[in-house]
């Protein structure tokens, strides 16, 4: 092959792969919140932004991957950044991130998971295994307050009923990570 010839590759299959395999199962949510208290002591109380990344995808017939993470930025004048004496405070919370293998009537799931058993109309009485984040209990939804933690679980579906077996180390609780950045604002 002559050196001056450049190998050309059709970009359409690559673009289709990226679109269907990477971008379609992904969801990004950008949010900003600011609240102002009128009566004394007045002023800005909440001034924060968040970027949430969600991804769900089946692949190779038996596998499924799910990731859900939220990065919060608490700006100057937000009560959370002021409590840490910072002008800008970042908090990352991995809500879930696991790989699941399923074949026939058995499913194995490994990673950061929320484990909620049963249903309840009025309260969160089903949150026995997964802990909750109580840092702002009245301001975040029940779903966002549930914290994922490293768990290995096996689900077995039989004619007699469905069984779930899991292992969670009592010494490992996934912390919410904080990153402080001091700025001259």
Written account of the structure:
The protein is mainly β and 185 residues long. It has one domain (11-179). The protein has helices at 11-23, 79-83, 142-145; strands at 26-37, 43-59, 63-74, 88-103, 106-113, 149-157, 162-167, 177-181. Strands 1, 2, 3, 4, 5, 6, 7 and 8 form an 8-stranded antiparallel beta sheet that branches. The chain is flat, with a radius of gyration of 22 Å. The termini are far apart.
Topology:
Elements: H1 11-23, E1 26-37, E2 43-59, E3 63-74, H2 79-83, E4 88-103, E5 106-113, H3 142-145, E6 149-157, E7 162-167, E8 177-181
Antiparallel strand pairs: 1-2, 2-3, 3-4, 4-5, 4-8, 5-6, 6-7
Put the structure in a nutshell.
With 185 residues, this protein is mainly beta.
Question: pLDDT average, as an integer?
Answer: 78
Question: Unreliable segments (pLDDT under 50, ≥5 consecutive)?
Answer: 174-185
* Strands, count: 8
- Tell me the structural class: mainly beta
Characterize the main sheet: 8 strands, antiparallel
Computed CA radius of gyration, to the nearest angstrom: 22 Å
Helical percent range?
A: 10-25%
The oligomeric state of the chains shown is single chain
Supply the number of structural domains: 1
Series of H and E elements: HEEEHEEHEEE
How far apart the termini lie comes to 60 Å
State the shape.
flat
Task: Count up the helices.
Answer: 3
Q: How much beta, percentage-wise? A: over 45%
